[in-house]
């Protein structure tokens, strides 16, 4: 158990996140304590890891300087068998590119890279990667910063629940629940589209597996969007067993431009182990059908760290996916979230995660894909990151907008989040819908009430 037994509120938050990255074992096991005591102009830091004790006094001029010095001490100077290596230095948070963009505006590109390495102790490799993505994102999004909005629509239904999933999903064979949910979803969508008259820049329908609901219900949703003219329109069709000719022929009638087909791995034994109800051949069948019947761009999600996979299994997956040649490949590192069966059962194989991520970067580069967006998650294995890769000219705009909060994203549906961004590109408000269906339907008036109060901030 990681405990900050003494310190300011800011110190407690900062150092809990840092210690969780470098000492992940102690988040659920053992005992790790950090105490930070202020005595005049000295901060006395004491770190206890099991039976080992480390302490140091820090002279400081301000609180920021003190936090930087203590963080550097933990990262650079503390040596312990349980300590994980990390390319991220002292940088925490889920949106490192957003942080980097702010520094670029203040310092310029050359000084920003040096700042990341010298002040935040990032590895030169990680600093280069972040700078490359930041420059690409600026090129793609500077023209829409603080302008317009994007629309996210959430459909929380899946045919089954995978062991690594922590999202609040509902079985799609519960047709009464699907019908009730879709009725309320359409009411919320109608309110948003009736309030904001301009077309969204991008639309993203996610889940869950949106294509797991009956086609007439999905069509009813898409009917609401058919006259909109977004730059791009993504629909998650993650499960290959939901993809058939009827679905694809229907989707062609709407302004959909991109779909996701998500194998996660192409190793059948792993798919079975994590209760993913398809085989690798089903992925190929669905992919070929999309290519034959549509001109949609295709994204494919992969997850590193499933089951006891190592480099041989990951290599097999990359061989198969690269041969298919999708426009986008998004590589996630398994994150052990509360609510997932893998987190509850623990014992997940983690030793080779860094090797797997290094291998994936190499394979993507060799195959002609470049990284275009990146984010981190809490409890991510091996201190990795989730990275989206793209063929030249096929970067997904919504992912960059959403991760870096470029402009407002309006969330519709259970557990969706709305982020309002002003004309200067500053996030001014963030609020989420209820995470379970009962509250979403029973307290629907509160959801519309929030949108009535706050959507005017961006109009």
TrEMBL record:
Coiled-coil segments on the chain, per record: none
Pfam family membership, one: Radical_SAM
GO cellular component term, pick one: cytoplasm
Protein name: Coproporphyrinogen dehydrogenase HemZ
Native organism: Aedoeadaptatus coxii
Top-rank taxon, per record: Bacteria
Domain Radical SAM core: 143-383
GO biological process: porphyrin-containing compound biosynthetic process
Gene Ontology MF: a single term: catalytic activity
